[in-house]
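Researcher: Re-running this chain for the archive, since the previous output was lost when a drive failed. Same request as before.
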Amino acid sequence: MKAYKIVLFSLLFTITFTSCSIWSNNDLVDNAKNEILEENSSKIDKDDDTFESNFDKFEEAENSEKENKVYSSDYLTEEKYISLDDLDISNLNNLELEIRWNVLIDSVDTIVVNFSNIESPFSEDSYTLSTYEKWDESFIYRAFSKYEVLDYWKNIFLIDAYSWEKVSKLQLIVNISKNPEENKVTNKEDLSFSDDSEYIDLSTMPSSTVYGTPSELWNWDITYSDIKGLVIKKVWDLELSYDSAKISDFVMENFKSYPYWNTLRYIKDDMWLSFYLVREVDWKYKYEKHYYIDSSYYWILSLEEWEIDSSDENFNLNTYIRDLNNNLKETNDNFVLSQVSDILFRQLISN
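Model: Regenerated structure tokens:
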């Protein structure tokens, strides 16, 4: 009888535990659906089949090998005394790189640059900048192959900025391929409001296994490790709101290359919005998703880029981009990275 009770108790415990696990997993799936697809219900309806199909694509992409970027930077300490200002990669194929840094606090008195590349015959290097002086607002480091501090493949620069007894550590990774075409930075934007962008403290930005971790790009812009082609800027006082006329004026002023946009959406209220944009750049069309958080962030997610075929004798670029905009907006649901980026967008809004 005692054995019977033990078996019965074990069976009930197993059923209860399994049931709880099923409900827990269902809750996770439901939350994921809500995060990815929950828009203003009066404006967007999406079915579960679309979600499941796209989420499967995302999981497959997330598990695939990540493509190396030309460069990326990350803070390794809570202290953040310097920031990456600009990388001159015009001579990268000649193994010459000039790096400009901003100093964020006045008390930094020593800068040490440490170099390593396990694929290179060059030995590791540690150099204290002799030209840097306390109160300097910026400094330049020239990583040249002739100085044995730059080579092909993965170059790691660890910049130590000392302030009294504390140190800020910022790591810069520069990947250089022997194929010149792979050393191009393809997602840098040249916008009329770029010069007004401000420093983004990476420690204030969220991280997740879904969208990855933030890292610094150039001119204080940032990106995310698992959202390829994303550029986030911190900006102020853009004339943007949930108004078609204002969106059109903004697009025409900032993207002077036959821009057309579609699918304006807002989240929470009309100061958190997104839209898709197609435009011509160097005889390629670029399809992007743009986001704006009032008085905080503006970001651009690159979705697609192709050469423009102008062989038709009656070709008209304006008509071509306009028709392309009408066709591409029918495919918006197929861009998995757009859904992942939406999750990050909502996370920033809720912070």
